[in-house]
Amino acid sequence: MARDKVYQEEDFPTPLMQLWHNFKQPPVVMIGFSCFIFLIILAVVANFITPYSAVENHLDYLLLPPAWSNEGNISFLLGTDNLGRDMLSRLMQGASLTFGLSIIVVAVSLVIGVIIGSLSALTTGIKSSILNHFLDVILSIPSLLLAIIIVAILGPGLENTLWAIIMVLIPQFVHITRNAVKEEFAKDYVLASRLDGANSFRILRYSVFPNIIEKLISQATLAQSAAILDIAALGFLGLGAPLPMPEWGAMLANGIDMFYIAPWTVYLPGLAILFSVIATNLVGEGMRHALKVRKES
Amino acid sequence: MLIFTLRRISLFFFTMLLLTILSFSLSFLFPGEQLINLTGQINATPEHLAALAHQYQQQASIVSQYFSYLSHLFQGDMGYSMASQLPITTEIFHRLPATIELTSVALLIAMFFGIPIGFFAAIYHRKVPDNLILAIAMIGYSIPVFWLGMLAILIFSIQLGWLPSAGQISLLFEIEYVTGLQLIDILLSDSEYKWQAFQDATRHLILPVIVVALAPATIFMRLARTAMLEVLDTHYITAAQAKGLTFAQIIYRHAMRNAVIKVIRDVGLQFANLVTIAMITEMIFSWPGIGSWLIESIYQRDYTAIQGGLIVLSTFIFIVHIIIDFVYAALNPLAREPNHGT
């Protein structure tokens, strides 16, 4: 029996709800999404639930292997590093540094990029052409080189690397917002609301943004996996988080000298980075798949 | 084709203009004296500094300062490295070839393996091989390159002992500097140990190239897969099927050629990404290239080196970009001529 017209009023899901509906279909995407949520929760609560402090030294237990090996100790589940710091606690707090900060970085650059991008989409002529070329130049400089230059200007340190990565990510968002806004502005429904007397900002706010938000989110997941890798890479190179901080890249750099005696100090942070990047990429992949499905239907 | 070339050339000039402005303004942004950042003369006497200030037209307006900087650049003068007090140009000429060698071999390897595997995945669309390849690709571009490099050294150089872990060639071999590209220099040299040296250099190249090529290769896999799927969806493929061509004929004669063109268009965009990966890999494998030199120079606060490195590395990327554009235009008639009658 057809149940098309049970309710009087018709309910149109917002673009975001439609995206979610298509997004949750493939199981592998949901696994990635749960890992992503798990990492977010871990990043928020890590400071309260870690068994030890991330910088506390247990001098009796230096370079203890993980608990499943014969020399391991169950009170240090993932072993300790060369200064007797608990690996599990450090990895958990690293989640709030590497992963949590990458979310903040992406959010900030998303906001700035969207503002610049939509302003530039509204301008035409030589100004927008120059901006376009400028963005192309910036986008073709390797991201790490750009980040290194910005760190050289600001000086090393975690906070400065974050600013550097924000600035590296902004052009991508400007680019995608600009193209998406221009594309939407060419459509008829924008013309309709323009005929109703809406000014450009009103059209942006009420007509265009709800329709391009999913593209921005999908770009944001791409940017986030790049941000995690960049934060870790700069930490690894010693330009980002200082050594005692449990940032995953800095932990890797710390473990390098003991690679052959204590391989877990290198395996574990690397796996943590890999895990979080894969979780982010799975979410992004699911998002793009959902967008494609919606376009085709 | 003429218009296409002119457009590329004008784009190149515009890009270089922006790039030099960027690098010129960096000398103001870096900490310390602007003139010293620009020239790298940290130990100069006041008289020498005054002469330099005159040379760079410091008393004139900012525009003429920029132009005098440009003219120095055109004469190949990028100042002196603050760390080693050698001219930046010589430093770069000794290091850039190693980077060119590493990145171009890695790019070729990544394309050589990535594109066919992507086609293979597209042919088995939504079957087991496709899913398997997608899963591997996902891991491939998610893996942090510094971690991958360390694992590669641990497994292949230390535990198995198959390949050397650092440097470009064993120190036993003495290779004359001709082009700077190690492999070509070895072939040009008339040493009696030429082939041993060539083998040794190749063995040194294998691990870094694999580490650099892995992530771009997985991206090419995905690009090739998408391109192939798009091509297989077009009307001319349906027409070919209707004419009764076999599947292999369709793939080899029609689909593959058109899909390769689509992938090549995107190779240029991936190259900047590949250079980023190569910079970190050079650091891990002590590869004597420009990437590891740049990272070293930031530890030493060598601002002149950073400016020079930015210009040279970005120019290299743009040139590769433009070469790939031309290859694309040569392969695809639709890109070089304006469409008529569409």
Automatic annotation (TrEMBL), chain A:
Main location group: membrane
Localization annotation: Cell inner membrane; Cell membrane
GO biological process: transmembrane transport
PROSITE patterns for the chain: ABC_TM1 (PS50928), PROKAR_LIPOPROTEIN (PS51257)
Membrane-crossing residue ranges in chain numbering: 28-49, 97-122, 134-155, 222-241, 261-284
Domain (ABC transmembrane type-1) ranges: 95-284
GO cellular component: plasma membrane
Pfam families on file: BPD_transp_1, OppC_N
Recorded topology in the membrane: Multi-pass membrane protein
Protein keywords: Cell inner membrane, Cell membrane, Membrane, Transmembrane, Transmembrane helix, Transport
Alphabetized PANTHER family for the sequence: OLIGOPEPTIDE TRANSPORT SYSTEM PERMEASE PROTEIN APPC, PUTRESCINE EXPORT SYSTEM PERMEASE PROTEIN SAPC
Membership in a protein family: Belongs to the binding-protein-dependent transport system permease family. OppBC subfamily.
Protein name per UniProt: Cationic peptide transport system permease protein
Native source organism of the sequence: Colwellia chukchiensis
Automatic annotation (TrEMBL), chain B:
A GO molecular function held by the record: dipeptide transmembrane transporter activity
Presence of keyword Hydrolase: no
Chief location of this protein within or outside the cell: membrane
Cell compartment(s), UniProt: Cell inner membrane; Cell membrane
Chain segments annotated as transmembrane: 12-30, 105-125, 132-156, 205-224, 267-290, 310-331
Keyword annotations from UniProtKB, A to Z: Cell inner membrane, Cell membrane, Membrane, Transmembrane, Transmembrane helix, Transport
Recorded GO CC terms: plasma membrane
Family to which this protein belongs: Belongs to the binding-protein-dependent transport system permease family. OppBC subfamily.
Protein name (Swiss-Prot/TrEMBL): Cationic peptide transport system permease protein
Species of provenance: Colwellia chukchiensis
